[in-house]
Amino acid sequence: MDNIVCIYKITNTITGDFYIGQTHDFEYRMKGHKKKPAPKMREDVEKYGWDAFKFEIIEECSENVLTERENFYISTLKPPYNSVFKGFERSQETRKKISETLMGHEVSQETRMKLSKSNSGKNVSLDTREKISKAMVGKSNGVTSFLGQKHTLESRMKMSKPVICVETHEVFWSIDVAAEHFNISSSNIAAVLNGRQLTAGGFHWRYVDEQFNEKIRTNDKRNKSIICKEDGKIFDSIEQAANTLSLNPCGILHVLKGRAKTCGDFHFEYANDLPDDESNSCSLRLKLLGTKPVPILCVETGKIYPTIKLASKEIKVASQSISAVLNGRRMTAGGFHWKYVDDCLNVPEKKPTSTAKPVICVETGQIFPSIKATADAFKFTPQSISAVLNGKGMTAGGYHFEYVD
């Protein structure tokens, strides 16, 4: 039998008890019963086995009358194994009596545990969830909840702490309103009011009620003037330098603390760390330069570049390498020697160490302070250049290399 729409009956041939149900597929439904019997039938199934039960169709009918015909047989025959009359609608009077009986009735903890266990793993339909959600708005275990409600404007104003912008003297009844007005983050304004930073959006902030202003900082001891060594510009603080040069303030701080060499190809120093002696050429030059760029010279080509970045871009060498030559930390960058056009900014030229011998490329004539510097410039392995220098190879990448005497 396949896909038979019908009312069926399961009868215990020993006791005579039976079950009435409806299905769109009789065979499939019978298999389901055998896997999971109806609650009132389960004990007899365990006692007598399925061989004692008879499955039969008592009426085939169309789908649109299934529930109606099932109700008819259940109400007429009153099957002992049916615990709930599926689809059977109680009268208004009966429902009222049940409601009055259950009113004020408290479910025991044991019963609750049984219900929880029996409902475990069941999926509630989306439609049912929406109905439950709507029914629970404003309720929480019998206590009025604020779910789905909003504070009135008057209530919000009573709960808020008005703030004032020191520079504009504008008063706002909350941090959020001030943040929206200036198009800045409310968390930044809160940070100022809680003493974690000095300004937000370039403005100072205070609570209108002075009793809440105890945490606000009036000055920033961390702010020290710093100098960008590349262009000589002096900034009042790390934040100002970061904003002007579009850099990360943490990166600048790492350079100042000696944890990093550069930030965004720039070197920085605290202004008060420089010598105060006006005769000092570097100090004097920085004051004369102001915000002007510092031109540099490529010794081998004689070409002058307005900035390190332009030189770096043209010869395709990292600007940090050129800066390292200018600051005396290495001899060459890209195979070239570099100097500031203004000699007063130049530091003593780095000399090769005893362990590093200068190397010359025979074809280009470029001189490098060491094998490693040569390898970096040509993007070869140091081993390949060393093999040429030691007579184990003729060329490296098509070039001949020799030690400079």
Q: Quick gist of this model?
A:
Helix content is 36%, strand content 14%. The protein is an alpha+beta fold.
Strands, helices and their partners?
Blueprint: E1 6-12, E2 18-23, H1 26-35, H2 39-48, E3 53-60, H3 66-77, H4 92-102, H5 109-119, H6 126-136, E4 139-140, E5 143-144, H7 153-159, E6 163-165, E7 171-172, H8 175-182, H9 186-193, E8 205-207, E9 226-228, E10 234-235, H10 238-245, H11 249-256, E11 268-270, H12 281-289, E12 296-298, E13 304-305, H13 308-315, H14 319-326, E14 338-340, E15 359-361, E16 367-368, H15 371-378, H16 382-389, E17 401-403
Antiparallel strand pairs: 1-2, 1-3, 4-5, 6-7, 6-8, 9-10, 9-11, 12-13, 12-14, 15-16, 15-17
